[in-house]
Request: fold
Amino acid sequence: MLVFVYGTLTDRARAREVLGGAPEFVADAVLEGCHRVDGDYPTLVPGGTCARRLLRVQKPDLHRLDAYEGVDRGLYARVTVPFRDPVGDASVGTVETYVGDPDALDAPGSWPGEGTLAERVQAYVENEGVVVRRLD
Reply:
């Protein structure tokens, strides 16, 4: 399973601490349709692009990442983003990523729509064609 990371988890030592073992960064990647902003911690907001890394994890590792990102406290939401071929537009699966609540992180930006942060971000991803592409 792949996770697009763009903040503190791009640091090998931090990822090792959170995952309890050596992180497996598999490639550089770009998230198209959202860009990074900084507040108390980095997050994503609509529009633009964000280039960072793909981290390979096992499904049980998602619980560790959820806890680290404060998903249960509403600080971040984990969303699923389509993963596209770097050259064409063929789907090659999905990637998980974490998006923080700009208000909770004192970061600029907002997510349109109604519902929870996760619902608003996931709707934006689906409606606006947000994708992750591996950079080769």
In short: The mean pLDDT is 95.
